[in-house]
Fold this sequence. Notes:
Number of strands: 9
Strand content: 5-15%
CATH architecture of the largest domain: 3-Layer(aba) Sandwich
Shape: globular
Radius of gyration: 25 Å
Distance between the termini: 30 Å
Amino acid sequence: MSNGLDPSTFDPSIRVQDDLFRYVNGPWLREAPIKPDRATAGGFIDLVDEAEELVRTIVERCAADPQDDEERKIGDLFTSFMDTDRIEQLGAAPLADDLAKIDAVTSVPALVRTIGALERSGVNSIAGLYIAPDRGRPDRYVTHVVQAGIGLPDESYYREDQFAEIREAYRAHIATMLSLAGFDEADQRADRALDIETRIASHHWDRVACRDAQKTYNLMTLDQLDALTPSFDWRAWADEAGIAHEVLAEAVVSQPSYLEGVQTLLTDDLLPAWLDWLRWQLVHAAAPFLSDDFVAANFEFYGKTLQGTDELRPRWKRGIGFVEGSMGEAVGKIYVRTEYPAEAKSRMEELIANLLEAYRISIRKLPWMSDETKQRALDKLDAFTPKIGHPESFKDYSALETDPGDLVGNARRAQSVAMDRELAKIGKPIDRDEWYMTPQTVNAYYNPTMNEIVFPAAILQPPFFDARADDAVNYGAIGSVIGHEIGHGFDDQGSQYDGTGALSNWWTDDDRAAFDALAAKIIAQYDDLSPANADGQKVNGALTIGENIGDLGGLGIAYLAFKLAQEGKPTESIDGFTPDQRFFLAWARAWQGKSRPAETLRRLTVDPHSPPEFRCNQVVRNIEAFYEAFDVTPDDELWLDPAERVTIWA
């Protein structure tokens, strides 16, 4: 059996009672470099890099020796991305036809139609469209319409003083890209494009509002959508985009006031600015597939300025990303043949079963919840669907046509095929076998409208999962991830969905009030936290509350499941650490991570996850078992007064 932990990597100069995160990860935090083509480093990133190397072997083999038509297409995509001579020769030429469409626009209605015509090219539009189960009736698919139209990470970047330098760099970047595309007066055009984006952003909902499952559920008919946006002809837009009107017969509009506001900008006097905005959106969307001058300029802003990354990722890595974005499940089908051992699934099934049982035990004992709501929570828990490793059937890419000499064409055809696959869902039964991540993705997720927890094959390896390690390590790491994803079904938003996946209030008023009071205490805890390299900027407790509840419940429930798994087993120490101590040490190692200062700032603004150090330390401050495992006292830094500790689900 693997020990799963290496104490020689810990920092003996730090007391675990003062800083669990740095006790486990201190030497790594000081010494491990962030790779020059990365904005972050850590356990997740290491696994991503390993998966990327494995996928590279798959893709290069498909390019050199395809065994069937699907593998030939994988090879064509990669070959077209790596054909730098042809890409340099073409320069901006692949954009000529679409730029001519924009040049021909002379009215607002023509602008709307042209935005539709570019929908299949991956160009950022005024509104985004996707197909998903209906939160009100999760037995059917419905179209969702969301705010869009901006190129900076968040609406706050357009208005807050702390982002003034980024805004100026962004304006210069737009000018550079338009100049590379052959436009004169690039500075003036950039000013106009940024002005339109700033006006668009002024109507955007902030990140906290966009998390609200109730506020963002606004079911409208096409006639109601037209009435909301009289300046935007949805039927004309759909005709140009190749979208049947039936797709828009009903739609969930996530931010109605955004659409209502942005359509007031569609006026004749602003038309020249809109055209420059659309030219910029077109160039930006195509930049990764154009010549090196476009790629370098794109990286200069989005990589260096926004994330602080030193170097552009090697071309082969970007090529792998392109292939995975275009035919991810075709690659995944090959990946799981060799990279997903059978014992991983059986061990995961055991872990998940114990985590679900731990939730049952915890829910039955909750002191703040009534029996009526407890039963409904248990009903939802019983309806959970776990998915492990990979889908039972993989996506069909037979409709995709590829050409080893046509990178931009390949990108657009892949986008169009993916779009048609999504649009075809309207009117069809829910596909409960569908996955929203590929098997080679290092991540996991909870899907509220399916009430499912999903764990791709690539995350089922150390430091998260080790089939040879003892229970303490696996429950502290992957067990907490499992508990976290289950916990999303009971966080501030997931708890508003019932076991069928419907947005339905299954709470008594008193129980919901009690839950909200506990959540408010967690928000307050995190609002006070600022990571080391953030120049004083603090965590947004309201933005991160869902993930923080997931972390807190995930670790607490994982500990309870660990104790269930330990019943009747010996409890000897390993390397001087008790099983309970190893559980928390594994938790800390799982969150090993750091980021560049610019990336830290960006994530504090837009990321619903707290920084790694707080995902580790702030959570354990609320877990009684941590205090007992390491004899934490009021004199220790991680001590939190018992009256301030929050327990929701465990």
